[in-house]
Design brief:
This protein has a domain of 40 residues. Helices cover 82% and strands 0% of the residues. The chain has two helices and no strands. Helix 1 packs antiparallel against helix 2. The longest helix has 27 residues. The N and C termini lie close together (5 Å).
Length: 61
């Protein structure tokens, strides 16, 4: 577990969950969005949140 303390692991899990939630919410917004420009922005932001979540998960080993 890369020598992380219990508190650090707890914080990582919280951040991972937060990024996952943001990604899911943005994907929902994309489905309901009718403006093509805004839809593109939301899609990119959802992808970035998902990538951040995956990067954070690497710290958990």
């Amino acid at each position: 577990m890369n020598n992380l303390t219990e508190l650090e692991v707890e914080h990582l899990r919280h951040l991972i969950g937060g990024h996952g939630l943001i990604s899911k919410k943005l994907e929902t917004y994309v489905q309901n969005c009718t403006d093509p420009e805004l839809k593109t922005i939301l899609q990119k932001d959802a992808q970035v949140a998902k990538q951040s979540q995956q990067q954070l998960m690497t710290f958990l080993g």
